[in-house]
Structure prediction request, 249 residues.
Amino acid sequence: MQTKQNSHKILLTMLMGAALLAGFGVDFYAPSLPAMARYFQVPNFYTQLALAIYLLGYALAQPIIGTCSDCFGRKYPFVAGMTLYSVASIAAMFAHSIIFLMVMRVLQGVGAAAVGVLNKAILTDSFPPEELPKFATYLAMSWSIGPIIAPAIGGYLQHYLGWQSLFAFQVLQAAIILAFLLIAFVETNHQLKTYVFQQVKNTYLAIVKHKIFFGSMLCMALMYSMMITFNVISPFLIQNDLHYSCLLY
Prediction:
């Protein structure tokens, strides 16, 4: 019993670390946007788009990863996602054009989508229903800490090491999670499903057409858009117009 509790603690720590990585996805880069615009010699709009476009990959990949995890298990899609995230982050460090950086940001989002889907699935697989609300709260707290501390860490990295160091930091984050997945993670989905396209399509259509779900999703999207708007505008206002440093941001 004690061993099982210890393994649950280790698993929860990994999931919280993964949630923190996903929470870093947008806010981490905000202090570096003006520096990126100068580096690539492009209008501000392009670096703002490179920040926000991460969410496109994050959103579009989740239904695919969710289906794969039901059919092939949680481990392999998670490993694939973290591997893609690491490779995209390494490539972004050496980006020589803003278009290439945008492509890598989309791929980062695709990789991070594995966290968004599989964290919750693994939690459901591993813990009894009566404990799920408590542990789900831990994951939500871990994710929400990301946007709080990410700009501070990103600002210091930008000031002392340049914007490329942000991607190096995220390679380190993903590598730690990937090492755990390869060494210590044991598959949690023991009821694999057979892939049937029509059934998958009908399931997703039923979810999207559900009025309460769609309304809740729309409200959450509108609320989150305020945060994204702040992230893409404020760095230029604070650093370019008010002439404060990225550290103050």
